[in-house]
Amino acid sequence: LGVARQRKAIVQGLQASVSEFSDDVEGASPKDVMDILLLSQYFDTLNTVGANSLILEHDPATVANLQRQVGASFMTSSKDLLS
Fold first, then answer.
1. Residue 58 pLDDT more than 80?
2. CA 65, CA 79: separation in Å to the nearest integer?
3. Is 21 exposed, middle or buried (0-12, 13-18, 19+ CB in 10 A)?
4. What is the average pLDDT score of the chain?
5. Residue 17 has pLDDT above 80, yes or no
6. Which of 6, 5, 31, 8 is nearest to 19 (CA)?
7. What mean pLDDT is predicted for residues 39-68?
8. What average pLDDT does this structure show over 46-70?
9. 3-state secondary structure 25-43
10. Does the pLDDT of residue 42 top 80, yes or no?
11. Would you say 9 and 16 are in contact if contact means Cβ atoms under 8 Å apart?
12. Which of 8, 14, 46, 63 could crosslink 51 through cysteines, CB 3.0-4.6 Å?
């Protein structure tokens, strides 16, 4: 029961943050915010598993491509879990 409440609080905080960011930053959609969050979590995961010496290109096209790849990977994983 405690874990369920914790997850619910995380989701509620995330919803509020996405909504607030979208309202405050002109032209930013909730999807943009989720893409940023997803990419940040990906980098946090790399750091946690010890891949902190990874060197990545950082031009906008490379970052956008990485976002698409990470997003597609998570979506595929989610679909597999639901099947």
1. no
2. 21
3. middle
4. 76
5. yes
6. 31
7. 74
8. 73
9. CCCCCHHHHHHHHHHHHHH
10. no
11. no
12. 46
3-state secondary structure (DSSP) of residue 9: helix
Q: What is the mean pLDDT of residues 51-65?
A: 71
C-alpha 39/C-alpha 42 separation (Å) is 5
Asked if 38 and 74 touch (Cβ cutoff 8 Å), the reply is yes
Is 82's pLDDT higher than 80? no
Tell me if 39 sits within 8 A of 32, measured CB to CB: no
In this structure, what DSSP letter does residue 18 have? Answer: H
d(CA 83, CA 79): 6
Residue 13, Ramachandran bin (φ over 0: left; ψ between -120 and 50: alpha; else beta): alpha
DSSP-derived secondary structure letter, 59: S
pLDDT at 83: 58
- Using an 8 Å Cβ cutoff, are 5 and 37 in contact? no
